[in-house]
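Sequence design from tokenized structure. All designs in this work follow the same two-part layout: the structure record, then the generated sequence. An example of the structure record is given first.
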């Protein structure tokens, strides 16, 4: 049964430490990893106020939510985020990382969000989100950025996001049960537009528009404790550029609210202006106490590439397998996995191998669960989801 939720502001007290890392075994891709502390207090200062924090080594993402301040079922939230490397860009084409065309981006952001529960009293909540945010980004060379490579101008951006979500997924590593049907629209309006790079060979668009949707189903069978996860995500964009294209690849489930997982590929290796991605995961317990499990994963995507990032195939696929451990009451969860990108392009031809480690430490195990809405987009991970130090 899908657990009910009273609103999109998370009603559960949570203290989680999340860690994820992936390492390619052929070539060198963008850094793939995250490490952050997630804290949610639904009774911060007073009973109708919720504080959410996500803290990474050099990045903070925070939101203060006020439940029922506009209508009994409409919540208001104010957010502040900022720190290092949040808007860093890594150029990947033809299965290669171009370090001379990659650079750091540091940013600060403020936001305001409205969360409205459309169907009060129903078992599966239908929520509406309206979010406005302002962001300022400063770009900087890495040690390997080309000397003649001109960085894009520092810029400010106004972003709008709106959408509907039926159900939801908890911000945890391996949910026992979840379902979601959602549809979204996001727009960015930027300053600092125009050409950059080598002799102005690329451009920053002044306005970009993204549309995407997701269908998600996660279920744990009561008797056998086998877990099934199915996910279909699709998106398209208008006037995309390198900063707003959908970035597909990797096996990191908490790299963003809508992780576009393609096992065996580099993290965010594929740049697309439209796509359909389907994935399935199945876990089987290996012992009678359900501590150890064997997990299988597969993904397939059809992709229309961002101009200049075309690959020989428009259908990409990857598979993976891993062994996991869950301690009593799920206070610690660990998954060691291996992935193979079936048609990932490398110097040696098609096929790429990757190993990864995922870990979650639950500092306060809860007795119930509720879906939660994050506020990121499918093509972009915030800085708190990066493992800094590259």
């Amino acid at each position: 049964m899908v657990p009910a939720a009273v609103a999109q502001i998370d009603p559960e007290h949570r203290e989680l430490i999340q860690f994820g890392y992936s390492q390619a075994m052929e070539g060198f891709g963008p850094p793939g990893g995250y490490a952050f502390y997630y804290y949610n207090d639904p009774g911060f200062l007073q009973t109708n106020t919720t504080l959410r924090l996500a803290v990474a080594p050099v990045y903070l993402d925070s939101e203060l939510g006020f439940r029922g301040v506009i209508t009994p079922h409409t919540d208001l939230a104010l957010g502040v985020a900022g720190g290092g490397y949040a808007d860093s860009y890594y150029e990947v084409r033809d299965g290669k990382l171009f370090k001379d065309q990659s650079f750091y981006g540091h940013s600060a952001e403020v936001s305001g969000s409205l969360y409205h529960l459309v169907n009060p009293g129903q078992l599966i909540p239908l929520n509406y989100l309206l979010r406005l945010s302002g962001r300022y980004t400063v770009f900087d060379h890495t040690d390997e950025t080309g000397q003649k490579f001109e960085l894009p101008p520092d810029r400010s951006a106004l972003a709008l996001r709106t959408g509907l979500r039926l159900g939801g997924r908890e911000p945890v590593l391996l949910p026992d049960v979840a379902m979601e049907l959602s549809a979204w629209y996001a727009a960015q309006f930027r300053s600092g537009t125009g050409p950059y790079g080598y002799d102005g060979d690329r451009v920053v668009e002044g306005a970009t528009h993204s549309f995407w949707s997701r269908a998600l189903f996660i279920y744990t069978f009561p008797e056998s404790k086998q877990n099934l996860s199915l996910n279909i995500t699709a998106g398209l964009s208008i006037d995309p550029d390198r900063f707003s294209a959908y970035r597909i690849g990797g096996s990191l489930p908490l790299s963003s609210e809508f992780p576009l997982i393609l096992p065996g590929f580099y993290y965010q290796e594929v740049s697309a202006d439209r796509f359909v991605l389907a994935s399935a995961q199945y876990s089987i317990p290996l012992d009678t106490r359900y501590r150890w499990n064997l997990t299988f994963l597969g993904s397939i995507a059809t992709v229309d590439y961002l101009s200049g990032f075309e690959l020989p195939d428009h259908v990409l696929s990857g598979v993976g397998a891993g062994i996991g451990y869950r301690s009593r009451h799920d206070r610690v969860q660990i998954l060691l996995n291996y992935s193979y990108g079936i048609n990932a392009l490398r110097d040696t031809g098609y096929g790429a191998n990757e190993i990864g480690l995922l870990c979650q430490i639950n500092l306060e195990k809860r007795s119930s669960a509720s879906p939660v809405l994050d506020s990121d987009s499918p093509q972009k991970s915030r800085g708190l989801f990066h493992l800094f130090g590259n």
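Confidence is low (pLDDT under 50) at residues 1-7, 366-375, 379-390. We note this feature because it recurs in several other targets discussed in the main text.
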